[in-house]
Amino acid sequence: MLLTDNVTYAMLLGRLGQLMHWLMVRKQLDDIFYCYKKKFEDFFGKLEEEKD
Description:
Blueprint: H1 14-44
């Protein structure tokens, strides 16, 4: 099973926005998707990773 989310966003303020992305926003997105994954696993159970 493969679950894919596409997130599109734009940081304002040019280089300052890029800096804010690396300092804060990236970590926040990682945290959001980590929580999302945990809730998914709580509901459906942990899925075995597929190997190619």
